[in-house]
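Backbones bend. Shown next:

***
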Amino acid sequence: MRCLTVDDGRSLVLGKEPVFYKDQAVGYVTSAAYGYTVAKPIAYAYLPAEVSLGDSVEIAYFGRRIQATVTADPLYDPTMTRLRG
């Protein structure tokens, strides 16, 4: 399970869309929504281990491909400073 952020900052996906890496279908989106704290759409997808953090992928959405980047999560508080107070 990997976190993806949509590169253009505005294209939303719904879920169940195929994810392409190096022009091959390698997984699918499980869930997606707009990430208000990071100001861009995010998605979670099942991807194989060879897809690493920072890699560029494409999400197929109604006949077009949306560029996305594999990102470390959590997106909002990666150092957990807010959680620790």
